[in-house]
Amino acid sequence: MILLFSMTSLFLSAQISTTSITVKANSTEATSVSATDSDICNGESTDLSVVGGFWGTGADWQWYEDGCGTGSSIGSGPSITVSPANATTATITKTYYVRAEGDCNTIDCQSVTITILLLLILQFLQMLPIVWIQKSMLRLFQVLQQE
Predict the structure, then answer these.
(1) What is the mean pLDDT of residues 90-111?
(2) Are the C-beta atoms of 33 and 98 separated by less than 8 Å?
């Protein structure tokens, strides 16, 4: 009986083959998105960065401006620089979206909203005489001291 078991054991070991299994990691959702400045003037730029999250196997952060995963990506990686333009006569906001896209999964987006300030107000302030601004500031300072 022992001899039979040994032969069976030898026979089985000749039939066994090895297989490698690669386990791919899933991405996890970012906690939030940060901006170096969320209120900017027309023509200025701000840096956007992913906070938290993990990109899995074959994944990278993809950035969008027309909605989560809408249209073409405007950049990739954990941070990008954006320079939204304001060609209107009103203050506007622009929302940017980011998500990890990879081999195993695509996660939900996180977003950040940037305010592009009204250009006309800034142009008006630039046209005011410096002396008037200085006198107004001096008067304001005097009023605040009296209170």
Answers:
(1) 93
(2) yes
What is the C-alpha separation between 44 and 34, in angstroms, rounded?
17
pTM above 0.70, yes or no: no
**47: nearest Cα among 58, 33, 29, 60:** 33
> Which pair of structure tokens corresponds to residue 20?
């490698």
Centroid of chain to Cα 143: 45
**Coil, helix or strand at residue 23:** coil
3-state SS assignment for residue 9: helix
Give the amino acid at 98: V
CA 141 to chain CA mean position, Å: 41
Considering the chain, what is the average pLDDT of its residues?
80
pLDDT tens digits for 13-66?
556 678 888 889 999 999 999 999 999 988 899 999 999 999 899 999 999 998
For strand 110-116 and strand 39-40, is the pairing parallel, antiparallel, or unpaired? Answer: parallel
Q: For residue 68, what pLDDT is reported?
A: 95
Of the candidates 86, 35, 24, 87, the residue with the CA atom closest to the CA atom of residue 59:
24
pLDDT at 121: 52
Instruction: Name residue 128's amino acid.
Output: L
